[in-house]
Write a structure and sequence with these properties.
The structure is a single chain. The protein has 528 residues and is of the alpha+beta class. Helices cover 37% and strands 24% of the residues. The chain is built from eleven helices and 20 strands. The strands form four sheets. Strands 11, 12, 13, 14, 17 and 18 form a six-stranded mixed sheet that branches. A five-stranded antiparallel sheet has the order 6-5-9-8-7, with helices on both faces. A hairpin with a 6-residue loop joins β5 and β6. α3 runs parallel beside α6 and α4 packs antiparallel against α6. The protein is globular, with a radius of gyration of 30 Å.
Length: 528
């Protein structure tokens, strides 16, 4: 890497200095290290007449960083070590540069989130979102097209760049009459076309472009429009990373556009102060619904009598990083998932949605929890566009035998509540590192057995780390004691009891982290 010098590696402040100095001393102090100008960096220069000394260059990426002078064997060994340290320093700098780039990217996305949250004017929302997209993704043209009413026509609310004079609304691929934009809106999937002129959907005339990237603006279950960027530069091409970034911007823009449209509809109908207050309430409700990505109907399986399940999530901010899920793999196997994404806010919520979807999609293939988390980790590492990660616990309960197979990706330990004795057992912590950090990691699963009446309690770190006004944590010890007093309650009452105890303990102190709990109880070894 440009700028790398031996002086950096041999600085007294570096982690390798003490070891290198000790190594030179162990070699009898007859080895020294100099820079390319023969300035001494470490050790002692040999006498001029020391003819049996070698001068071995220290190179990195074809650049000579300096020399090791001393007996041949010692000089070569020290040179190899310095070369290794130089490579590690270079890799560390490259990683730091990448992390800084990702941080700046996430920071810009968070800035957009804050900007959009304060905007209710539709054109202002579109211009702000499109300006951020242009700032992050190279483009010569761009537009945001919005469908203000269901099944209504698309309308441009923001654009940049100039289309060809021969292009009408019907032939301009970035215009309101674009059939290409309509197809993206209908399918609800983002797309890249890096050779648009050869695409069968391209239109005749002078409106063809070199490359095109389009993403739908989805708010809940409804697509409200599309955001499109194009690049007419020769050889320009969009990447999968560009597509993910545009999808992220689209998700935030769609939520703000939906709020803007909803606000406009309400204001048109409002005639007095009471109606205006109702508008604000409905806008707040709309924001909450936008981020409701977890099951909310309980009991979720009213037809089943062989188990009961309940879960609850309370976010510390408008959008949190915690998540949970549960679903039947087949008639006899119930999957339960809980997790916690690093960070808070919109980026954490987006990463949460991706992680939760990957886990469910993979788990439905029926593989054991350890194999499932291994596959999900590979996908998240390969596809990540930021430095986020997620802890996760995935369990698979066999409702016939009571076997509970599980694997933890760096998550809090689960508790097993015995019905007959009321004993609370922390099940063995096995698994692997959090999801999305590194590939090639091993995940190990384990099994416990649930007798009829036994329950599993899952939670995120917001429970034991809940703080009162005296800055004291609720702690794992208090949680175990609380579970011991409520072990025989129904899953719903169990979670309500824990919630109440946490609330009493915090005594009105502000919630600093998401609090999520899930409990499942095996009721019978018989199936319906």
């Amino acid at each position: 890497m440009s700028g790398l010098k031996l002086r950096t590696l041999l600085s007294p402040k570096s982690t390798s200095f003490a070891a290198l100095a000790a190594l030179c001393e162990a070699m009898g102090n007859n080895v020294c290290i100099v820079d390319p100008s023969d300035k001494l960096l470490l050790g002692r220069l040999p006498a001029e007449h020391a003819g049996d000394f070698s001068r071995v260059p220290v190179s990195h990426e074809g650049v000579v960083l300096g020399f090791v002078i001393g007996p041949a064997a010692s000089a070569i060994a020290l040179t190899l070590l310095l070369g290794h340290l130089a490579s590690r320093e270079s890799e560390g700098r490259a990683l730091a540069s990448e992390v800084l780039h990702l941080y700046r990217e996430v920071h810009l996305i968070e800035q957009l989130s804050e900007q959009l949250a304060a905007l209710l004017n539709l054109s202002a929302v579109g211009e702000s979102a499109l300006a951020q997209a242009q700032r992050l993704i190279s483009a010569t043209r761009g537009s945001i097209l919005v469908m203000e009413k269901a099944d209504g026509p698309l309308r441009s609310i923001a654009s940049f760049g100039v289309s060809s004079d021969d292009c009408s609304d019907e032939t301009d691929v970035l215009g309101p009459g674009s059939s290409f934009a309509a197809s993206i809106l209908e399918r609800g999937m983002a797309e890249i076309v890096n050779n648009y002129s050869s695409d069968p959907r391209s239109l005749n005339g002078d409106c063809t472009l070199g490359s095109l990237i389009v993403a739908p603006l989805r708010a809940g279950q409804r697509s409200v429009g599309v955001i499109a960027l194009a690049n007419a530069a020769v050889g320009a091409a969009y990447s999968a990373a560009d597509l993910k970034l545009l999808n992220t911007i689209a998700l935030q823009a769609a939520a703000a556009i939906e709020n803007s449209l909803l606000c406009a509809e309400m204001i048109d109908a409002a005639r007095d102060r009471e109606q205006l207050v109702a508008i604000q309430h409905e806008l707040d409700t709309a924001r909450n619904i936008q981020h409701s990505l977890v099951p909310r109907t309980f009991p979720p399986f009213p037809e089943r009598s062989d188990f009961e399940i309940h879960a609850q999530m309370t976010s510390a901010r408008a959008v949190g990083g915690d998540f949970f899920d549960f679903f039947l793999i087949d008639e006899d196997r119930l999957a339960v998932v809980i997790g916690d994404v690093s960070g808070k806010g919109i980026p954490a919520a987006l990463y949460m949605a991706v992680t939760r979807t990957q886990i469910k999609t993979t788990a439905l293939r029926g593989m054991p929890p350890a194999e499932c988390l291994l596959e999900v980790n590979k996908v998240l590492v390969r596809e990540r566009v930021n430095a986020m990660f997620a802890t996760c616990f995935y369990g698979l309960l066999d409702l016939r035998s009571g076997e509970f197979h599980y694997c933890s990706a760096g998550h809090n330990p689960a508790y097993l509540l015995r019905a007959t004795s009321g004993v609370v057992e922390a099940i063995a912590e096995v698994g692997g590192i959090p999801l999305g950090l590194f590939d090639g990691m091993e995940y190990i699963g384990s099994t416990v057995y649930l007798q009829p009446g036994d329950a599993i309690f899952l939670y995120t770190d917001g429970v034991p780390e809940a703080r009162n006004k005296g800055e004291e944590d609720f702690t794992d010890e208090r949680l175990v004691a609380t579970l011991g007093l409520s072990a025989t309650l129904s899953c719903r009452d169990l979670i309500s009891y824990v919630t109440r105890e946490v609330s009493v303990f915090t005594d009105g102190a502000s919630q600093s982290d998401d609090i999520t709990m899930l409990s499942v109880r095996r009721l019978s070894s018989e199936t319906n």
